[in-house]
Amino acid sequence: MYYDLSAFAGHWPFRRLRNGEIGAELEHLKKYGIGGGLISSLDAIFYNDPWEADGELAELLREKGFRAAVCVNPDLPHAAAELERHAGSAGAVRLYPGIHGYECPGASELARLAGELGLPVLLTARLEDRRLEYLLRQREVDILKWAELASKTPETRFLFTGFYRGELDMLPDPPENVWADTSGLCHDLFPFEVCAFPADRLVFGSMSPLQCLESAVINVPGELRDGIMGRNPERFLKGEERK
Amino acid sequence: MRGKIIDIHAHIWRGRVREDSALLLRAAERFGIGAIFVSALGSHVPDEEEVRELNDMTGALLREESIFRGYVTVSPEHGNALDVLKRGVEEQGMLGMKLWVSRRCDDACCDRLYRYCADEGVPVLVHTYAKTAGMLPGESTAAELRRAALRFPEVRFIMAHLGGNCYHGVPLIRDVPNVWADFSGSNCREDDLPYAVSMLGAGRILFGTDMPGACAMSLGQALGAGLSEGELELILRRNAAELFPKGGLSDVL
Fold first, then answer.
1. How far apart are CA A15 and CA A99, in angstroms?
2. Which of the pair, A106 or B43, is modelled with greater confidence?
3. For B134, which residue in chain A has the nearest alpha carbon?
4. Which of A7, A44, A154, A201 is the most buried (most CB within 10 A)?
């Protein structure tokens, strides 16, 4: 079975998503043999109380093979308490510093708490190509600063998602608890031949339905799919150490 | 999918011709591409000598590998621009004009080039990209292409990259039938192509990659757009063959 560790469901305020509804997205993923992984609510990013959307998503995903990567905004006064309260329903924590507008020190306590709760942290680089932003302006997310935070939070597994190859190339020797997904690698021709990030810690992430699922799948060469779409995400989800 | 794909938008970079052409050939093999239209890229504001070098690079590639077709790169503000275009089409075997990006496509200095393209039936590829941030000096947008296309209705234009943000670019060419659109480039949004097809119909959409930048992205967008076999056939092959009747594309079809 294949996994997608960076899929979404819900509404994106700036354009219509054909596969935004969770049932449609699950069917879409299934077409490519993807039967497990992490799905995040797009609505939760914009809600005052993200759990209003994440709770619904977690319920919809029950017994579907996927878990919800729940949105946490460290700037919210109840963020830590809410995370503790809902940890049992979540498969991961997802951070959006580029949208919520905080720097990495602001997230260090929550990252540590997520680790204590056994939840990996998905760090989102961006959700929209910055050239194509409409109304919303995302802030830059500095991969090196976040890698430093991860190195100081060794009990928490991090998945860096949506970073471009040029950014991942800055981490040829990332901290042991840092993994990366493939959702930012669609912009390159044969990226897996040149990406400096360790191949055994690369996992499949599509960012579908914001980004094109088919492109993400096709981009992974057939001979690498079992590793990047199968074994590696399994290891990440189980919390296994690097092999 | 039947037949091979025609990629109407790819590049070779100055100083990297060997590496880039090798990458393009490998990609063609892996992704089932039967013809690749290339133009050569260099400085943002090249001088006449550099433009000559760029077109010589493309010309040499066309002689070496039968999979390649060529656009002649023309920097419209150059005094010799029309001669460059004529040489590319009449002597070097180029099939289209790639209007260089440092001068907007509705600038009056392009007019003499468009008149030649109209007379000779040469399609014009225009990089269009309306960006929230980081616009290049002289970079064209769909609004400027619309103006040029309305002034020269007999010229067949290709609006590259769906104009950048397709939701802002594509509607501007909906009522301009002499503009086609390609979805090449590094924009991986899942719903851009279905949106463009809903606006323009499949008959005015062309497959392009922007290699050596990206390739799987465009192919995935085409295959994942929920299009009919007929629509895919138009987008992946037939529209390009009709737009470039002198392209010798019958083998690909």
1. 17
2. B43
3. A131
4. A7
Contact map slice: A 51-90 vs B, CB within 8 A: none
pLDDT (0 to 100) of residue B251: 78
Return the DSSP state at A117: T
Number of structural domains found in chain A: 1
Q: Does residue B32 have a pLDDT over 80? A: yes
CATH code of B5-243, in short, is 3.20.20.140
Q: Which domain CATH number covers A228?
A: 3.20.20.140
Percentage of chain A modeled with pLDDT above 70: 99
In terms of CA atoms, which chain B residue is nearest residue A209? B190
Backbone dihedral angles phi then psi of residue A211, each to the nearest 5 degrees: -105, 170
* B61 vs B24: CA distance, rounded Å: 12
Task: Write down the residue that tokens 């799948």 correspond to.
Answer: A217
In a domain, A106, yes or no: yes
Domain locations in chain B as residue ranges: 5-243
- The answer to whether position A243 is within a domain reads no
Picking from A134, A190, A214, the nearest residue to B220 by CB comes out as A214
Among A70, A187, A157, CA closest to B211: A187
A88: closest CA of chain B, how far (Å): 32
Query: Mean pLDDT throughout A147-176?
Result: 97
**Exposed/middle/buried for residue B250 (C-beta within 10 Å: 0-12, 13-18, 19+):** exposed
* Closest CA–CA distance from residue B195 to any residue of chain A (Å): 9
Q: Percent of chain B at pLDDT above 90?
A: 92
